[in-house]
Write a structure and sequence with these properties.
Layout (H helix, E strand, L loop, with lengths): L6 H9 L9 H9 L1 H23 L5 H47 L1 H11 L1 H26 L3
Helix pairs in contact: 1-3, 2-3, 4-6
The chain binds zinc ion (ZN).
């Protein structure tokens, strides 16, 4: 493997934009006679030129846009985090409602059995149980929301 001791100096001059105008005359003379450094100049100068063209063409967002995006993302993440317990309880309530609805529909599908169910509770007691169940299903998520909300 052929190496040159001045290779790092040449690369540094190119990387920092000093090549060839602001480079040492001695370094330019070395590159003119050293094939390793001449190859390095050919490749690194082309890459540096491409880099400068891309940096010049880039249109990064303004600081205000970056701040606004970060604020929106932070707010969305905070909302998602706050909604996790509520979402979990909504799923629990939905599962309970599904189970109760399945049981009631199974029992109410046959009218005679429904009459037996109501008779076993007594009409008013069954109505009170249903009202209590519905009230719990509606109020439980609201109570959890107001309990767990930070604001
Ligand atoms: Zn060299």
């Amino acid at each position: 493997m052929i190496e040159c001791l001045r290779e790092a100096d040449v690369f540094e001059a190119i990387a920092f934009g000093r090549w060839p105008a602001d480079a040492d005359a001695e370094l330019r003379g070395h590159v003119a006679h050293c094939p390793v450094c001449r190859d390095l100049v050919t490749v690194a100068a082309a890459l540096q030129s491409d880099r400068q063209a891309l940096v010049g063409a880039a249109q990064p967002p303004t600081a205000g846009v970056v701040w606004w995006r970060a604020a929106v993302r932070t707010r969305a993440e905070a909302t998602r985090t706050a909604m996790q317990p509520i979402t979990m309880w909504h799923r629990v309530v939905a599962a309970c409602v599904a189970v109760v609805a399945a049981v009631l529909s199974r029992d109410l599908w046959q009218w005679g059995r429904a009459a037996d169910v109501l008779a076993s509770f007594g009409g008013q007691r069954a109505a009170l149980v249903l009202v209590g169940l519905v009230a719990a299903l509606v109020l439980a998520p609201l109570a959890l929301y107001f309990t767990l909300a930070d604001d």
